[in-house]
Amino acid sequence: MLTDKEFRALVARHELDARSAPTRFAWVTALWAAAGLAALGLLLTAALLGALWLGLAVQGWWGLRLVLVAGCLSLAWAVLRAIWVRPPPLVGDVITRTEAPRLFELIDRVAARCRAPRPDLVVLDDALNAGVSLRPRLGVLGWHRHVLHLGLPLLMGCDVKALAAILAHEFGHLRGSHHWFDGWLYRTRRSWVELARLHDGRDNLSHLVVSVFFHYYLPRFDARALVLSRQMEVAADQLAHVAVGPTHLARALTTLEIQARYLQQTFWPAVWAQADQRPSPEGLRPLQTLGRRLRTATGHPQAARWLQQAWKALPDPQDTHPGLRDRLELAGQPLQLPEPPAQTAAEALLAEHTTPLTDRLDRWWQGRVSQDWQAHYRTRQSRQQQWTQLSQRLAQGEATADEALHHARLTDELRPPAEALAAWQVVWQRHGQPPEAGLHWAQAVLDQAPHSPDADQVDAIHTACARLAELAAATTPPGQPHWCLPAAQRLRDWLEQLQARQPEAITDPQAVSIWRQRVRELQSRREAALDVLGQFEGPQRLEAAQVHACVLREALHDFRSEPGVGAVYLWRKTDPRAPGWVMHLVVIERSGTWLQAAKDSWWAHWLDRLQLPFDFMVLDLAHPAWRQTDRRDLVALFTGTPEACIYRRRHA
């Protein structure tokens, strides 16, 4: 199996090959795809013939034959399920021509101009996006339905021309040989991923047979498919330039970048803030509200900064879409702040149908987020209760340093910014100047700094910058490097804002570039340190972690609510190759309950669910990686040290 670093290097090498010989690269990738399908066919044939031979031709040894026949049939069933790719359920609300005739007229015109097939279904959802998907009626045999996914926020935030450019890009994926080849790559990869999902974590014959393909073929085919998909994205942009015009696509791209950040940083946080006091989303109509606000997002005070962030951002290594800079350069268009649309696509194309469609999507949204909303409400109420208890202990002078620090974290989350600033300052002054408190105090000072500060505020800003610089340079005490990168990032962001707003206030013209370089260095150090701490070969430096109960309170509640958790151990790991760095290990031992979560992915569920104020990894001891013979001693250490156990289910 390739590591992330090896995968990125392989993708970079394939990108060079694709640029130097694009036709050859495409044909070789096609051969890889064909080889994958052929391997599936051979596996299926071998499994069926093996079961037939063992059942009819071999005599005696009934018990062993029965086990082997069951293994062959298990492999055959898994391959059949992988070949018969089942598309995920549609997310959103299917709309018809009678509900939005003008929208369908635009779709038909753009599809005809792009010489692409018209979509069989149009699905409206709550995403600020558009996309096409192929849904096979006959699995790998094809006969696809073309589904166009349109986000209602997309229609609410751009004009008709910009929407047409986005549609032209998406229809580029359905056009001619592009459509066939793209779909073939997609289906081949889906087949292998499905087969891997079915067998990951199983200790049986079929798993042993196909594991070599999972570890060798799939990541290498993925790297090739990723490069080819990126080329297809460029071709889709070029088609949109011809069909609608590069100016309209450029305006659509810049508008979407600003609106996406507005939704992520302003709109949806404000909606979810209501879950602090409201136990259910019933009655909320966020999409109705969004229709009035999204069109003006390009006039938001932060719009210019958001657009600059998008311009500077590098594309995700796993994303097929190029970055904004590359797409605008391909279009031959400059980076400029777009004007709000005079008339949105929703107003022009949905007209009187907008309200009923918005009502339907709001009800759909309520059902989709209801469970997460209720969980958020319960968590928030629990944290509010804990904050009250810790506030009382602080007022009585009984709080420990750990309790004061956790009280500041909760204050930062639950209370107004001024209270959070005061709480961090108290912890910094009274409890040994912990780096976390210094970082958050400095961040709060800069976040609350006005455009025209008075003398006291200027002093506070200078102190905050000095504190961030000190934190970004300190690397020796244990646990200290964890705070270097966020401190350097916040100082860099502040200097960039100051340079854009008041360039004369920066005395050193090289300060911004110096801190940009410092951030890059710290990012590299962090990646290297986390890579070292994530290795478990050879001797390990481990000790039972000592974490205050107030920090673990929420995590322990989560463990109690999961019947599959038998015991949890918390360890502290260090490594001389990463001086000063600390990684906490949350080690989960399964209970004896009959129903258990998937062995290969439960750790990811907990990594996403747990909220702990330090770097940590989740180790599920039921995962195949921890059932290997060379790790038995380490597993015995994890589970055999009572001091490391933070939770044990009764009768586990």
TrEMBL record:
Its cofactor is Zn(2+). The chain crosses the membrane at residues 25-54, 66-84. Residues 102-329 form the Peptidase M48 domain. Keywords: Cell membrane, Hydrolase, Membrane, Metal-binding, Metalloprotease, Protease, Transmembrane, Transmembrane helix, Zinc. GO terms for biological process: proteolysis. Its main location: membrane. The keyword Metal-binding applies. InterPro entries: HtpX_protease, Peptidase_M48. Pfam families: Peptidase_M48 (PF01435). GO terms for molecular function: metal ion binding; metalloendopeptidase activity. CDD domains: M48_Ste24p_like. It is a multi-pass membrane protein. One of its GO terms (cellular component) is plasma membrane. It is found in: Cell membrane. The keyword GTP-binding does not apply. This is M48 family metalloprotease. The lineage of its organism: Bacteria, Pseudomonadati, Pseudomonadota, Betaproteobacteria, Burkholderiales.
